[in-house]
Design goal:
Number of strands of chain B: 11
Number of strands of chain A: 11
Radius of gyration of chain A: 18 Å
Structural class of chain A: alpha/beta
Bound molecules: flavin-adenine dinucleotide
Radius of gyration of chain B: 17 Å
Shape of chain B: globular
Strand content of chain B: 25-35%
Strand content of chain A: 25-35%
CATH class of the largest domain in chain A: Alpha Beta
CATH topology of the largest domain in chain A: Rossmann fold
Largest interface: A-B, 44 and 39 residues
Shape of chain A: globular
Distance between the termini of chain B: 19 Å
Largest sheet of chain B: 6 strands, mixed
Oligomer: heterodimer
Number of helices of chain A: 5
Chain lengths: 248, 201
């Protein structure tokens, strides 16, 4: 599929099949689509909530699951204080509820298929969601592609999909995991105990043994600026950096 | 379809007629863009008007700032669903730029380009009659980098991805040529009141 023929779905109802508390502030929502679609890792859906008076609120959420034949997609939603939609998901939404969504959306922040060259992923918080879809898609379709994930989190327990990432790292020699833990001392010697900077990006790139040909950065706008500044200070080319900013 | 248990914040009270369908009011000014934030010094800044591949006029920062300035207060609408009311901008209207270049209406379509390689297409009619400017100030201050400084296009009646950040050229094209997002699934025109978010909307 080229970047041009992204399919744009219409609104469809889907049902919450399962809810998993992943970290103190992030829950995964597994949604059963009524009109299943195949997405590319990195894409998002728009979710629409409607009140009895007709008022509706719409927000975008990245798909965290990889493309497969399953009609169930996973969203990883972070609770923002007073967030209109994220706190609805965390405090009100329950298994069996119907939610409207459309997708898959977005034609830029996409895992390259086929992926051939080294790829660097940088994320924070729920910004891991589209990167996780990429890591999962890579595992299924291009496991040999050298890929590094530099993931920033306040503490070890704030690391989304921690178990899966650590087991990937152990089973997959071409996958590098580096955590930047900002509010406590990191447990592993290979992790960093500070915010992302140029030196850190350089060190992670060195662990990849090759210069990345594509870089994907995702998280809040503040985080994306810090991470892309780090990548530029590490001497990486701005034209290979794609960002997904969660607004804020 | 009513969502069980959702009441939401409500539709903006007295201002609800100013908020297009599917939009909500943002109290902050979110930042979205597809790549790193470029850093452009005003001493290096240049702005070009082209017809097809051919440059017609180039301004540096001081020359551009000598053009007539206009202040506008506008509501803006981002396709990611936030809207912001009464935002205050100052800059140079597109007709004032074209007049300085000695141009009238070379073609009916324009591609705006940015320092980051971004582009977006806008019909010329949507850039004239005070509808659009190259903005140099936001809320009375020089435009911050994150919001497209030193200068961005401002086309507030269309979704905000049309208001190209870090703008450095307006290029007249013979046909309506899709820009960056328009060739990646987003609507060719992008009217928020008709909810033209994605290609077939
Ligand atoms: C393409 C795209 C993909 C996205 N994917 C995801 C995803 O996978 N998971 C996810 O959790 N979110 C994701 N988001 C963000 C999501 O769309 C909402 O913006 C977010 O859930 C907040 O909505 P809300 O209604 O809860 O908060 P709102 O009521 O809209 O805002 C609440 C307050 O929080 C502030 N705020 C907004 N964003 C942040 C932030 N990142 N950090 C701190 N404060 C903030 C706002 O300024 C506001 O004051 C994505 C956004 C985009 C554009």
């Amino acid at each position: 599929m080229t970047e041009n023929d992204t399919q744009i779905g219409s609104w469809q109802p889907c049902v919450i099949e399962e809810i998993v508390q992943q970290t103190p502030s992030i829950k995964s929502f597994f949604l059963r689509l009524s009109k299943p679609f195949a997405h590319i890792a990195g894409q998002h859906v728009d979710v629409r909530l409607t009140a009895p008076d007709g008022y509706s609120a719409m927000r975008s959420y990245s798909v965290a699951s990889s493309t497969n034949s399953s009609p169930i997609i996973e969203l990883a939603i972070e609770r923002l204080p007073d967030g209109e939609v994220s706190s609805f998901f965390h405090d009100v939404a329950a298994i069996g509820d119907e939610i409207e969504l459309r997708g898959p959306l977005g034609g830029h922040f996409l895992w390259p298929e086929p992926a051939v060259d080294a790829i660097l992923l940088i994320g924070a918080g729920s910004g891991l969601a589209p990167l996780m879809a990429m890591i999962r898609q890579r595992r299924a379709t291009s496991p040999a592609v050298p890929t590094a994930l530099l993931l920033s989190a306040r503490t070890a327990e704030d690391v989304l999909f921690s178990k899966e990432l650590h087991s990937n790292e152990i089973s997959d020699a071409a996958f590098v995991l580096a955590l930047a833990i900002t509010r406590e001392k990191p447990i592993r010697a290979s992790d960093f105990g500070r915010r992302i900077d140029g030196e850190m990006v350089q060190e992670v790139v060195a662990r990849l043994h090759r210069k990345p040909t594509q870089i994907f950065v995702c998280g809040s706008n503040g985080f994306v600026n810090i991470a892309t500044d780090g990548a530029l200070l590490a001497g990486l080319d701005p034209s290979i950096i794609k960002t997904e900013r969660y607004g804020g | 379809m009513v969502t069980r248990g959702f009441t939401g914040r409500g539709s903006g009270g007295d201002n609800s007629n100013r908020i297009p369908p599917g939009q909500h009011l943002a109290d902050n000014f979110p930042v979205l863009s597809a790549g790193p934030t470029p850093s452009v010094e005003t001493s290096d800044w240049k702005f070009t008007v082209k017809i097809g591949p051919k440059p017609v006029k180039v301004w540096n920062w001081n020359e551009f700032n000598a053009l007539p300035k206009t202040k506008v207060t506008k509501d803006i609408h981002c396709v990611t669903s936030w809207s912001k009311l009464d935002t205050i901008w100052e800059g140079v209207l597109i007709e004032d730029i074209l007049a300085d270049a000695g141009l009238d209406q070379p073609t009916g379509f324009v591609l705006a380009h940015g320092y980051d390689g971004y582009s977006t297409n806008v019909p010329l009619a949507d850039l004239l009659s005070g509808k659009a400017m190259v903005a140099l100030k936001y809320a009375g201050k020089p435009l911050p980098r994150d919001h497209g400084g030193p200068a961005r296009l401002l086309v507030p009646h269309l979704y905000f991805w049309k208001s190209a950040k870090w703008v450095n050229a307006l290029q007249f094209t013979a046909r309506d040529e899709p820009g960056f997002w328009e060739s990646r699934g987003y609507h060719i025109y992008g009217d928020p009141w008709r909810e033209q978010r994605y290609t077939n909307d």
